Amino acid sequence: MNKLLIALLFISTTSLADDHTVFPKGVVLTTDKAKLCVSGYSATIRPPVAYTNKLKKQWVPAGHNPNEYELDHYIPIALGGDPKNPDNLWLQKWDDARRKDIQETLQHRDMCKGIYTPQEAQQHIRNWK
Description:
Blueprint: H1 2-17, H2 33-36, H3 41-45, H4 49-59, E1 69-73, E2 89-93, H5 94-113, H6 118-126
Antiparallel strand pairs: 1-2
Helix pairs in contact: 5-6
């Protein structure tokens, strides 16, 4: 019985760890506001589409189409998130991704205005639901 319970726990935690549609850890690359608030910063370090499409195809749940999802940065690049670290990337349904994009834009604007520090803006995004 104990072996069965251990096996079931292992399977369930492994499956959850491999589910790239749940909130990832989120990885911060920088908290340098001067860098983050330069127009076009994100574009200079955004990973190539070949990199992100490869991950997206690997991570899409069985029976689903990759086009159902956006491969999103949990901590946005514009707020200092790591652009390539898989622990900062996740598959997000398009409707949720669009809603989160609005919050990201507002957090970035407010951070650059000095309303929030980069760390505070990152925490607000971590609390996004």
